[in-house]
Amino acid sequence: MSGRKIGEVILDLQHISLRFGGVKALTDISFDVKEHEIRAIIGPNGAGKSSMLNVINGVYHPQEGKITFHGEERAKMEPHQAAMQGISRTFQNIALFKGMSVLDNIMTGRITKMKANFLEQAIHLGRARREELAHRAKVEEVIDFLEIQHIRKTPVGRLPYGLQKRVELGRALAAEPSMLLLDEPMAGMNVEEKQDMCRFILDVNDQFGTTIVLIEHDMGVVMDISDRVVVLDYGKKIGDGTPDEVRNNEEVISAYLGVSH
Amino acid sequence: MPDTATRALDTFPRLLFYHAQVRGEKVAMREKDLGIWQSWTWADVADHVRSLACGLAEMGFKRGDNLAIIGDNRPRLYMMMAAVQCLGGVPVPLYQDAVGAEMLFVLQDADVRFALVEDQEQVDKLLEVREELPSLQHIFYDDPRGMRHYNQPFIHDIEELMAMGKIHNQNHPDVLDAEIAKGAADDVSIMLYTSGTTGKPKGVCQTHHAFIASARGGVEFDHLTDQDDILSYLPMAWVGDHLFSFAQALVSGFTINCPESGDTVMTDLREIGPTYYFAPPRVFENLLTQVMIRMEDASAIKRKMFHYFMDVARRSGADILDGKAVPFSERVLYALGSLCTYGPLKNVLGMSRIRVAYTAGAAIGPDLFRFYRSIGINLKQLYGQTETCAYVCLQPDGHIKLDSVGMPAPGVEVKIADNGEILVKGPMVLKGYYKRPDATAESINADGYFMTGDAGFFDDDGHLKIIDRAKDVGKLNNGAMFAPNYIENKLKFFPHIKEAVCFGHERDMVCAFINIDVGAVGNWAERQGIAYSGYTDLAGKPEVCNLIQECVEKINEELVREGMLADSQIHRFLVLHKELDPDDDELTRTRKVRRNFISEKYAVLIDALYSDKTSQFIETEVKFEDGRRGKVSADLVIRDTKTLPVVKNAA
């Protein structure tokens, strides 16, 4: 990772707390994400990792704390606004349109960039047509990048799991995000699929300079590809730092391996 | 372009610039990129080649240098071949799926100074072996993806090379034309390495003249024109691809089409609809299997229709294609079949426009071959090897014999040596093996014939039949020729037979070991209501022996009609109690029978075959996949088969 320069902080989370009724999902969590870095969030089941991602892209609204993105403190924000600002994501359970082709699925990632109105799109003339060609060209670049040319026209529901995950990444990439949130991109994959996915994540980060925040269970993967790691446990932050620092952190070790009493 | 058109078109660069002049606007190459077929006209190709060649000259590439080309079929890789030839150098294409260490031998042997590779993967392979390859000075890559951090000074983007070439060309506009003018027809135009199944790979040096003569022969033989389209998807290092996608394209001016990736070939085939097509038998076999599986899932009406019309096609399709006399009613049925079945089927396969399709490289099953011909695809076989530009025999339209490879191609002289070996002579014979005068002398005899190492014979109509590797051909005690592979291949074309090993060299008669195909025979047994527990049990069933006996007797009927091989009828056989397995060293990793090993290991069975016993007990040690060992034992039944009397031809 020699050519990539890690820049300034672009996302800063300060004292975030999130409650669902009486249940505290996140308690007073602060961390930041720098431009172009790969930032991992790890933690045991129920630690609040996915909630954290949902806070970042505006699905959940924390009761306390403040979020600064690109220097702007944001108030309540909806997911589509996050998308407009350049935050894309993938989901833990694949959320694609199973009956649609790979191409069409990835095309949906371009929706925030489409300017033609409904009527224009319906008659498919003029601006809508030009726009579609431009978007299609972008989508083809993503297809080429992810090496999924052979399944371009295949309905997503017929694809194996590993490829579906890759298509989901493709849809997120089609939005040309500046920040990519990946929720367990490698869950349920075999070793080879994991290696492929790792390579794609590194390539995205390297070639497009995309900042990546990922949740992952596979420690090997996390330690290999991320620049910095946040560790959550029961909604609290128990560690933050480079993979090496985190690996040697007492609290992290006990949360993961259990404590001898 | 000064006077290229008036000069003799006897080198590939001259042909290229000739096409750029006479059909400059016509599409020469297509490649699917980002979902769209991009095209290059002959004028574009000539321009690119000019830039590449000038760039190479600027980098210090000299006459006689070799340039390695490693990658999938990409337009710029083909263009580089021509660019290298412009400068009097020799392109050396390598198999792109080989690992670095495997490439090393060829790269060292060919003293490669320059290499053009497709992508990061191939660059990494070269970097891996670079220490041991001091001659390598420059690596160019075609696809910049992932190459941003490779800042070694000897790695260059092909775009840089072309940009450099453009400037060089502006400053010295005449240099390249002068270089092209220096080229002679008997310069080496390409070096193709033999796969090296027997010893180290050898670099086969072929001249412009050899490939142009072979290509021209093929183009005229099949009436190819500049309107034809071919899909270039087989490895560039293989002689067939060089002949079809490079030499013939440059001779006739037709269009080559590069698929988007290895996985998309079937889709690309459908989109391009080539008129001229080459595929090894296994591709045709896979296609047929896919069709059959999909037909099984089709609705009952469609299935009925398919089977009905396939029967019609089997009866008269091939004859209609060959222009033979067929009753009018059959023609009507066939026309109806074309409308309902064959046409749509060909369309799905991407073969609607095919005028000529070739297969070679391995024996093709007669049923498979007949299937494609019967639905109206002009599938033919050819015969040749790297040393003969893959151009020795071709099957002429209208005279197709399933089990022959056709007649000697125009300009080729074929004769059979006393030991049955096929000898060939003509312009397509290699100039020599690179730096191996010893091997060259061994393969070309005093009269200038290339010794193919294959054994074969001409049938009564002058069609060449290949029977075996010459060194495997033995003799029966009565002096008749015994070609084990030939008989084994015939046996293996039955779906029920997976492997066969024939014995007969220096014996009175031919006997065989048979391995059944568990899938096919198991399926058959289920339908017959025969219960079985595993391979050994199934192989020992008398019903199964009967089934195999029928197959063997059919082979005997075929053999008796083949004159020279009538004595090779199988007299006795047994079904082996275990599958021959590479883990037990009975097969090579590429699943070729290790004859000597088997005849030692199963000596007791062979003795039983050549006695009058009707059964033999055997116990064999086997290795399981997890490394454990076990024993398999069985009482094997030995069957006598019906053989037909051999009619001796007085001649």
Terminal-residue CA separation of chain B: 61 Å
Oligomeric state of the chains in view:
heterodimer
What spatial form of chain B do the alpha-carbon principal axes imply?
Answer: globular
Beta-strand residue fraction of chain A: 15-25%
Which regions of chain B contain 5 or more consecutive residues with pLDDT less than 50?
1-6
Number of domains of chain A: 2
Q: Topology as H/E string of chain A?
A: EEEHEEHEHHHHEHEHEEHH
Counting DSSP H or I runs of 4 or more residues, the number of helices of chain B is 21
Main pleated sheet of chain B:
5 strands, parallel
Tell me the number of helical segments of chain A per DSSP (H or I, 4 or more residues long): 10
Structural class of chain A: alpha/beta
Overall mean pLDDT score of chain B? 89
Strand content of chain B: 15-25%
In CATH, the architecture of the largest domain in chain A is 3-Layer(aba) Sandwich
Strand order of the largest sheet of chain B: 4-3-5-6-7
- Which sheet architecture does the biggest sheet of chain A show? 6 strands, mixed
Task: Describe the fold and architecture.
The complex is a heterodimer of chains A (261) and B (651). With 261 residues, chain A is an alpha/beta fold. Helix content of chain A is 38%, strand content 25%. Chain A has helices spanning 49-56, 79-84, 102-108, 118-123, 126-146, 161-174, 191-208, 219-225, 243-247, 250-257, and strands at residues 9-20, 23-34, 38-42, 64-69, 72-74, 87-90, 179-183, 211-215, 228-233, 236-241. In chain A, strand 7 (179-183), helix 7 and strand 8 form a beta-alpha-beta unit. In chain A, helix 3 (102-108) runs parallel beside helix 6 (161-174) and helix 6 (161-174) packs parallel to helix 7. The termini of chain A are far apart. Chain B contains 21 helices and 28 strands. Chain B is globular, with a radius of gyration of 27 Å. With 651 residues, chain B is of the alpha/beta class. In chain B, strand 22 and strand 23 form a beta hairpin. In chain B, the strands form 7 sheets. In chain B, strands 4-3-5-6-7 form a 5-stranded parallel β-sheet, with helices on both faces. In chain B, strands 12-13-14-15-16 form a 5-stranded mixed β-sheet, with helices on one face. Chain B has a 5-stranded mixed β-sheet with strand order 24-25-26-28-27, sandwiched between helices. In chain B, helix 1 (12-22) crosses helix 3 and helix 12 (300-321) crosses helix 13 (328-349). Among the domains of chain B are: 12-200, 3-Layer(aba) Sandwich (Rossmann fold); 473-640, GMP Synthetase, Chain A, domain 3 (2-Layer Sandwich). The A-B interface holds A 2-3, 136-137, 140-141, 143-145, 147, 149-150, 152-153, 203, 206-207 and B 33-36, 145-146, 148-149, 260-261, 263-264, 267.
